[in-house]
Amino acid sequence: MKLYIPMDSAAKALGADDVAEAVRREAEARDLDVTIIRTGTRGMIWLEPLVEIDRGNGREAFGPVTSKDVPALLDGTLDGHGPVENIPFFARQTRLTFARCGVIDPLDLADYEKHGGLVGLRRAIDLSSAEIVAEVTDSGLRGRGGAGFPTGIKWKTVMEAEAPQKYIVCNADEGDSGTFADRMIMEGDPFTLIEGMVIAGLGVGATKGYVYLRSEYPDAIAVMNEAIRIARDKGALGEDILGSKRSFDMEVRVGAGAYVCGEETSLLNSLEGKRGVVRAKPPLPALEGFLGRPTVVNNVISLATIPVIFERGAQHYADFGMGRSRGTVTLQIAGNVARGGLFETAFGITLGEVVNDLGGGTRSGQPVKAVQVGGPLGAYIPVANFDAPLGYEELDARGGLLGHAGLTVFDDSVDMLKMARFAMEFCAVESCGKCTPCRIGSVRGVETIDRIARGDADAIPLLTDLCETMTDGSLCALGGFTPFPVMSALNHFPDDFATQKEAAE
Ligand SMILES: Cc1cc2nc3c(=O)[nH]c(=O)nc-3n(C[C@H](O)[C@H](O)[C@H](O)COP(=O)(O)O)c2cc1C
Ligand code: SF4
Fold first, then answer.
1. CATH number of 416-504
2. Mean pLDDT to the nearest integer, 212-224
3. Best substitution site from 424, 425, 475, 482 to test ligand 2's pocket, by max atoms within 8 Å of Cβ?
4. Per-residue confidence band for 465, with pLDDT thresholds at 50, 70 and 90
5. pTM here?
6. 146 alpha carbon – ligand 1 mean position (Å)
7. What is the mean pLDDT of residues 90-116?
8. Residue 317 host element (H or E)
9. Quick one: CA dihedral 404, 264, 260, 300, positive or negative?
10. What does the alpha-carbon distance between residue 331 and residue 403 come to, in Å, rounded to a whole number?
11. Which class does domain 321-411 fall in?
């Protein structure tokens, strides 16, 4: 009998290690032949710890499982969900980037290969740099870190730059509130990120890569380091990759713990050992990035999606999606929601489907009031706009932004004035200090919202004016996008701003 128990940190936080230990003890006491395989998570966090059992006729899912459930689990008397693929939340997904996550042992390279791993790299090895870059361009892949910049165009710029050394930098800072896709893939299928980075190196002519990984992800750091060691050991990294005479090596660098260090130029400064302050652009990192050399900076999900594009072909990937948003989006459903987790699907699903159908509404049972899409710099979207399809341009047209595809759900007890204040305060705390509209504007923003809360109606046009200055005058999106949550709160939920006024009167 084989038992699959996640070692993902969300599952561990919900007791997966205790369950694994209880299984081990119970099996020993019963003298049962049980193999425990620690996997990543399937992404249905409300069912964690989710245990799968294979008694020889396929995997059957149980969850949430506690240590107390283990005897019944082994007896075969515990109620289960059937195969994971039959659970509606899972059945409705299109898993491309996350196809192996939760299925394989993350640190078993042979298991990885058995499930399609390294097929893409083997194909890329036989292609020229220009052909590799063209494949990425044809796939329509856009940066999943936030800006949605076409990955192929970025790679082309680096490929065409002449330099003695080029770099691939993976942005694993994952600072957006309510997001966890980067962590999930690094803990659950690290070789896919490694494979993506090697293909990127072959494509642009870089021989060295770094994963800039946030310090708050100790499990992901440990898994990535071990996966890099194994990949190097087995010839998938380092000199002469898979006998190709090409080389690429990489290492993990632990982040310094600032939201702004996720901004690519600030990240590069931090990676160079400097203070994480934003650099003015130009020069673009693609031309003068890490140590002044041409550098690809890509998000974890962008890079982890590269292998499947090469495995199945650019067209297969591009066939999913809508408009200029091609392929799949890895939604992270969080906040006050009944069923939170990772949902990978073709672009085009509506916000209402995600929050109400998949998420099952709020966890509190109260009506949904708003969803913040795209992290702390994303707009609060009211229920009236839930018909909005999730795509870069489509959300932009509704005054929103997709960002890293995190969705944080709020029920009707939320006070949107407080959320607007929080956005300004977050900007003040996290500002790198380089430019005045953000450094000073965010502090003035908190003060102005406090005036509104005290009932000063004159402060409302002042806040609008301040937001315009921040939008137009900030050097990067931290100062430049903070007005999204602030103004969306003010525009969509004016009552919360008026109520405060009445209360003060
Ligand atoms: C304040 C700020 C924070 C950011 N944080 C992240 C982050 O945590 N992870 C990330 O991938 N991109 C982040 N970005 C976006 C990066 O600057 C950059 O666009 C991205 O790493 C490029 O990779 P992609 O094209 O694959 O998305 C942030 C941007 C800003 C302005
Ligand atoms: S907008 Fe804020 S974080 Fe960005 S460069 Fe200016 S001060 Fe720094």
1. 1.20.1440.230
2. 97
3. 475
4. very high
5. 0.97
6. 5
7. 98
8. helix 314-318
9. positive
10. 10
11. alpha beta
Question: Domain 109-318: which topology?
Answer: Rossmann fold (3.40.50)
Quote the CA–CA distance of 181 and 402 in Å, as a whole number. Answer: 14
Q: 């650019």: which residue's tokens?
A: 314
pLDDT band for position 256 (cuts 50, 70, 90): confident
**Backbone φ, ψ for residue 134 (5° rounding):** -65, -35
**Which residue, judged by its Cα, is nearest atom 31 of ligand 1?**
477
pLDDT exceeds cutoff 70 at 333: yes
User: Is the pLDDT assigned to residue 232 strictly greater than 70?
Assistant: yes
Q: How far, in Å, are 268, 431, 446, 483 from residue 428 at the CA level?
A: 22, 5, 8, 13
Residue type, 66: T
- The pair of three-digit structure tokens given for residue 481, joined into one six-digit string: 């996008």
Cis status, amide bond into 382, omega within 30 of 0: no
Summary mean pLDDT of the chain: 96
Instruction: State what percent of residues in the chain have pLDDT above 70.
Output: 99
Q: Which CATH number is associated with domain 2-91?
A: 3.40.30.10
| Spatial separation of the C-alpha atoms in residues 19 and 16, rounded to whole Å | 5
pLDDT of 504 higher than 60 = no
Residue 439's φ and ψ, nearest 5 degrees, are -60, -50
Cα(140)–Cα(326) distance, integer angstroms: 5
Name the strand (E) or helix (H) holding 328: strand 328-335
Ligand nearest to the CA of 470: 2
Rounded-to-integer distance, Cα 190 and Cα 195, Å: 9
User: From atom 2 of ligand 1, which residue's Cα is the shortest distance away?
Assistant: 263
What would the pLDDT profile of 374-424 be if each residue is shown by its tens digit? 999 999 999 999 998 999 999 999 889 999 999 999 999 999 999 999 999
Sequence-ordered strand ranges (E) for 101-160: none
For residue 169, the one-letter residue type is V
Q: In this structure, what is the dihedral angle of CA atoms 453, 457, 463, 468, given to the nearest 10 degrees?
A: 150
Nearest CA to ligand 1 atom 14: 263
Could you tell me the CA-to-CA distances from 441 to 307, 416, 418, 422, 435 in Å, in that order? Answer: 43, 20, 18, 14, 10
**Pairing state between β 51-54 and 35-39:** unpaired
* pLDDT score recorded for residue 437: 97
- Domain assignments of the chain as residue spans, ordered by start: 2-91, 109-318, 321-411, 416-504
| pLDDT tens digits along 155-189 | 999 999 999 999 999 999 999 999 999 999 999 99
- Ligand with smallest separation from the Cα of 480: 2
Locus of tokens 């289960």: 80
Cα separation, 270 vs 345, in Å, equals 34
Report which of 172, 198, 176 is spatially closest to residue 185, judged by C-alpha positions: 172
